[in-house]
């Protein structure tokens, strides 16, 4: 049996873009990327089949985001998502991912009340789903929560800048970290969360120069979404990145495929064949 973090047969997946991939990405590998000036990729995912696909493609971190509320459950925001739902979707992702580090969001209402509530929710999420870490939204006011979760044995990724769970307080989807003193304020938040034990800090919808300054000020890696190229890692919602959804996409999204068109064409062709009697053909049936 190989050592827990020894290379496996598919190690060539990561070889052109860095050192051979470990058998399982862990927080230490993300830290090593930061220390060595390398980057890593992160994508949201909510089911086993997609997780397996992204895992095979070499994505280092899979985020079971509470964005499942928008992308899968059809809500207009992340706020209705429950801890039970996050556990269910994370279980599916863990089953599909062999190598990636799986991070799961703590949903709105599951951690804000107190550090004790945060620990109870985080422990339950990790224990019942198999996630390797949790992500929590909030600035330095949640440093005590992060410290308590870390002390309880839960790896925590912090999330600052635009925090979707606070959209009503923030006045909607708006860029954060602008104006005089923005770099100092966001750096202070990030440092407080780092000092509390966060293994990484995610920044969402933050000016590029601010995010780069925060990354430079931290020992731990940063992850950006709408935060420019200066972070250690990048994350996108996969349905945005692969063009599954039509309509307006956020400015910070690059679409690497147009799945909405591909799937639509395939479904229309299937329906035509069914209506015309072309499917199923004789080769799709069984003999007595």
From TrEMBL:
- According to its UniProt record, the EC number is 2.1.2.11
UniProt binding sites for 3-methyl-2-oxobutanoate: 66-67, 105, 135
Record-annotated active site: 204 (proton acceptor)
Cellular localisation? Cytoplasm
Class of the enzyme per the UniProt entry, highest EC level = transferase
Cofactor binding, note field: Binds 1 Mg(2+) ion per subunit.
Recorded GO molecular functions are: 3-methyl-2-oxobutanoate hydroxymethyltransferase activity; magnesium ion binding; methyltransferase activity
Q: Which GO terms describe its biological process?
A: methylation; pantothenate biosynthetic process
Pathway in which this enzyme or protein is active: Cofactor biosynthesis; (R)-pantothenate biosynthesis; (R)-pantoate from 3-methyl-2-oxobutanoate: step 1/2
Catalysed conversion reaction: (6R)-5,10-methylene-5,6,7,8-tetrahydrofolate + 3-methyl-2-oxobutanoate + H2O = 2-dehydropantoate + (6S)-5,6,7,8-tetrahydrofolate
For region Disordered, the annotated ranges are: 1-24
Q: Which cellular component terms (GO) are annotated to the entry?
A: cytoplasm
Biased amino acid composition, Basic and acidic residues: 1-12
Q: Which CDD domains match?
A: KPHMT-like
Q: Which of UniProt's keywords are assigned here? A: Cytoplasm, Magnesium, Metal-binding, Methyltransferase, Pantothenate biosynthesis, Transferase
Positions that bind Mg(2+): 66, 105, 137
The prosthetic group or cofactor this protein requires is: Mg(2+)
* PANTHER family registered for this protein in UniProt: 3-METHYL-2-OXOBUTANOATE HYDROXYMETHYLTRANSFERASE
The UniProt subunit note reads as follows: Homodecamer; pentamer of dimers.
Q: Which NCBIfam families match?
A: panB, PRK00311.1
Q: State the similarity comment.
A: Belongs to the PanB family.
Chain's role: Catalyzes the reversible reaction in which hydroxymethyl group from 5,10-methylenetetrahydrofolate is transferred onto alpha-ketoisovalerate to form ketopantoate.
The entry's protein name is 3-methyl-2-oxobutanoate hydroxymethyltransferase
